[in-house]
């Protein structure tokens, strides 16, 4: 995958970076933890500028968040609650859980989106409740952009400073990403077992 990402960055430049970050938001298994450090490494070699790399990564990531936002917006709270009522066992949530989650998002809104954009896996998913909650597009774009630029900037800077040793970036970030995913999956399994036990 590293060779494929490197090839797109080398051949596509800023457009290639924006494309990769867009796809990363639609299809999370393509990791930003590889894309942006490689782009930062290209900037360190003088092939690109850091400002351009961060801007391109941020643009692609923000554009990639929009389809998920619109999916949540189109689906809506009522349909999502009906889904939770019908398939609550597998979703590990009922309509009342959806209401609680929506209330929590309503209280935190901007902060939830901003912090969510800094957490692996959650970065993609946070756009859905924002859409369901009908968060104003201007605010969604503001907090998404700020969080995204912070994340892409950090990764690009790591690639720039470490240059060819971007494997060191992965060595630090990969375990953290795996830990987050394991935590999410573990929470799901626990909630699934608890709901079955309560049934």
Automatic annotation (TrEMBL):
<keyword id="KW-0812">Transmembrane</keyword>
<feature type="transmembrane region" description="Helical">
    <location>
        <begin position="50"/>
        <end position="71"/>
    </location>
</feature>
<protein>
    <submittedName>
        <fullName>Alkaline phosphatase</fullName>
    </submittedName>
</protein>
<keyword id="KW-1133">Transmembrane helix</keyword>
<keyword id="KW-1003">Cell membrane</keyword>
<feature type="transmembrane region" description="Helical">
    <location>
        <begin position="175"/>
        <end position="193"/>
    </location>
</feature>
<feature type="transmembrane region" description="Helical">
    <location>
        <begin position="12"/>
        <end position="30"/>
    </location>
</feature>
<keyword id="KW-0472">Membrane</keyword>
<feature type="domain" description="VTT">
    <location>
        <begin position="30"/>
        <end position="160"/>
    </location>
</feature>
<dbReference type="GO" id="GO:0005886">
    <property type="term" value="C:plasma membrane"/>
</dbReference>
<dbReference type="InterPro" id="IPR032816">
    <property type="entry name" value="VTT_dom"/>
</dbReference>
<dbReference type="Pfam" id="PF09335">
    <property type="entry name" value="VTT_dom"/>
</dbReference>
<dbReference type="InterPro" id="IPR051311">
    <property type="entry name" value="DedA_domain"/>
</dbReference>
<feature type="transmembrane region" description="Helical">
    <location>
        <begin position="139"/>
        <end position="163"/>
    </location>
</feature>
């Amino acid at each position: 995958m590293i060779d494929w990402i490197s090839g797109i960055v080398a051949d596509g430049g800023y457009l290639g970076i924006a494309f990769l970050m867009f796809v990363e938001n639609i299809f999370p298994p393509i990791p930003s933890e590889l894309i942006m450090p490689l782009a930062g490494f290209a900037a360190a070699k003088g092939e690109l500028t850091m400002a351009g790399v961060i801007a391109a990564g941020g643009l692609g990531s923000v554009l990639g968040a929009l389809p998920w936002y619109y999916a949540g917006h189109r689906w809506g709270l009522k349909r999502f609650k009906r889904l939770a009522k019908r398939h609550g066992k597998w979703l590990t949530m009922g309509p009342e859980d959806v209401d609680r989650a929506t209330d929590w998002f309503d209280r935190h809104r901007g902060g939830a989106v901003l912090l969510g954009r800094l957490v692996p896996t959650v970065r993609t998913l946070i756009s859905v409740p924002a859409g369901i909650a009908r968060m104003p597009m201007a605010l969604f774009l503001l907090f998404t952009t700020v969080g995204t630029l912070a994340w892409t900037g950090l990764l690009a800077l790591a690639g720039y400073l470490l240059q060819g040793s971007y494997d060191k970036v992965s060595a630090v970030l990969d375990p953290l990403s795996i830990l987050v995913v394991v935590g999410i999956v573990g929470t799901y399994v626990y909630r699934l077992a608890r709901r079955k036990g309560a049934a």
